[in-house]
Amino acid sequence: MKITRSLAALAAAGSAVALAACGTPSGGSGGNGGDADGDATSIVWDMWAGSESDIAALEEQLAIAQEENPDLDISLQHAPWNDYFTKLTTNLASGNVACVTSMNGQRLSGYHEAFLPLGEEELEIAGIDPADFTDGAMDIMSYDGTLYGVPYDVAAMLLYYNKDHFAEAGVDEPQAGWTFDDFDATLEGLGADGTAFGMGMGEFQWMSLPIARAGVQPVDESGALDLTNPAFVEASQWYASIAADGYGSIPPSASDTGWGEQEYQAGNVAMAVDGTWNAVSYLNNEAGFEAGMVDLPSADGERLGLVLGSGYGISADCEDPEAALQVLGSLVGEAAQDQIASSGRSYPARVDSQPLYFESLDEGVRDDVQAAFEAVFTGLEGQRSTDDWAQVNEAIQPDLVTVYTGQSTISDVLEQTQQQFGE
Amino acid sequence: MTATSAPEAPLRQRSRSRLRRIESRQALGFISPALVGLTVFTIAPVFLSIVMSLYDWPAWGTRSFVGLGNYVDLFTSHPDFWPALRNSAIFTLGFVPLNLAVSLSLALLLAPRIKGRAAFRVLFFIPVVTPMVANVLVWKMLLQPNGLFNGISTSWFGIELPSFLNHPQWAMVMVIVMSVWQGMGYNMLIFCAALEQLPEPVLEAARIDGAKGWRMFTKITLPLLSPAIFFTTVMTMITSMQVFAQPQLLTGGGPGNATLPIVMFIYDQAFTFQKMGLAAAAAWILFAIIIGLTALQFSAQKRWVHYEV
Questions:
Q1: Which of the residues in chain B have pLDDT under 50?
Q2: ipTM metric
């Protein structure tokens, strides 16, 4: 009896120690704001960062926010991009989410319940005027008509091309406002030896061209999954035909989830679709080719592009949302946005900071990039998504290889995925 | 003497039982870290996973009790569960015999006292100790269409090899081949050790009776090796039912679901699709299959495993 009791006590003590160890955030104290004993309220900011330079850039933004909020104690907590969402899920499960949590717009649908909806009152506390941000930027951090965060960057999908490949093949470089007929002609000019275009595996790397061509999103206006929309299916078939006709470089394995971009980066293909976030790394590519960029082609004079990006939200169970909102206001404030822009790390959401991004680029490429960005950031539409949108994409991805190699058709894949995930 | 010894006995008994109590308390103190570890990291998660498998359990958010719903769902309506079971079965059927044959052959080749035997053993064991990620990266470079194999084949013989990793049948073949290459060293070491322990009198008696070559191998060596073969079969089968890293890294489970094994299915359900309940149910099904197959092997061993007494 005694033994069992002391055993139970020991076990309880042991597990308490173990659980407490698990729950402590790596970067600072307590995840939930309100620090009753300390003088200053502590706010944790959770963000993804992959490298030392990423972390250094975040520390600079943290310093800006700290300076603007001297009465708060702000600490940074970070994880690499791939682990960030796993860690966030774990934190959510244990009710230990940082007050200011970063979120990627494309993944917001699966996590929106974890965030505090932001109304006019909240934005006022944070000192944020949506009019200061790029058109449609607020759509990035909105789900089902409700705003859950404020974007710090905006992005869109571009078509990157290898100027050296084009010169070698004697094909004209694509111009802003080009059409899908021009695109087909360009493919033909480049030749069907599998080096004209890098087939995409990532969500937007493959889906952007079909969306642009069809003029519809694979989620309808009511928010229901609509992968079998005839226009979208038709456009996807056209996309798959790039591989079938021999123009596309086909991923050798379903584990090559960044195939098209990697092949482009390595200088192996003439064109690939990727986000504006990689513009700088392509311009400075190690393979040493001259990179160019242009907006996606249009169909019948119209081009449907989606505005993408990431932002910061306040966790729904933050104990001191007002303090967190102030930190949020600083992190997307002018000083922090200027810092993001002038570092060239991403294209800021705040309009006034955007010119600094171009100034950070080499003079030789500045005009090209500015022209491409100005073309691509017009007439964008917010991405619609379902609660399980991330899963839908994970389910499609391994099947894309079978489509590109001709073992199955894109219409079958879309049909099956629609059946699995559609209401 | 009798006057003093009478009350002494209960005293000694009492003190002994007191000593025992103190000792058992001390023992408890010593084993408690292990007990706590066992409870926190093994017993509690196992119990939790049983509970989990009976719930619709998202990674976070509201959970609801579904009884055996997850199990029914897996067997009747999930599009990837049966293919995943099939893939694990194909992998096991391909990998276990091939692995045993290769590692036994290597052990037999290295058994005679040849020169550089130890060096060969180390060479064959290197893939076992190298991190799987590094192994897979090397194999990917070999197998890609612009990789070494296809490069040699096209430039020397003018033959274009299939794109191994995105071909539904070749992908599985290559996962098996790569796994055999990676895992053969371990079983080879076990066989090497067993071969060195073979009882010399038995071998000598067989030789005097005129046994040699193939007959010696099949009638004497193999039966004497049967305990080692049994052990490696059981262990290799268990690890092959749990295969994960090779397909995850080499083929991503694809093309489609052609190389998606059951453990990767469980991983995907839990950490990609955040369906913890479904994943827990699939894990228990895998556990039942492994236990069942192992029990089957243990009951079958009477027929073919010969222990030297």
A1: 1-5
A2: 0.78
A409-423 per-position pLDDT tens digit: 999 999 999 998 887
Cβ(B13)–Cβ(B5) below 8 Å: no
Cα B132 to Cα B110: distance, rounded to the nearest angstrom: 25
Substitution target from B20, B28, B39 for chain A, most A beta carbons within 10 A: B39
Cα B239–chain centre separation: 2
Which residues in chain A have their CB less than 8 angstroms from residue B33's CB? 14
The alpha-carbon gap from B116 to the nearest alpha carbon of chain A, in Å, equals: 39
A308: closest CA of chain B, how far (Å): 22
Strands (E), A263-354: 271-275, 291-295, 305-314
Inter-chain CB proximity B168 and A407 less than 8 Å: yes
Q: Is the pLDDT of residue A72 over 60?
A: yes
CA distance B175 to A145: 46
* Count of positions (residues) in chain A: 423
Give me the amino acid identity at B9.
A
Q: Considering CB atoms only, which of A18, A86, A405 is closest to B166? A: A405
Whole-angstrom CA distances from A394 to A252, B48, B84, B118 are 18, 27, 16, 47
Per-residue exposure over B65-89, b if at least 16 CB sit within 10 Å of its own CB, e if not: ebeebbbebbeeebebbebbbebbe
Residue A373 tokens, joined: 């960005």
pLDDT at B265: 95
pLDDT band at A235 (very low <50, low <70, confident <90, very high): very high
> How remote is the C-alpha of A393 from its chain's centroid?
14
CB contact (8 A) between residue B59 and residue A398 = no
In chain B, residues with a C-beta closer than 8 Å to the C-beta of A113 are: 61
Comparing CB atoms, the residue among A86, A250, A407 nearest residue B271 is A86
Q: Residue A20: pLDDT band by 50, 70, 90 thresholds?
A: very low
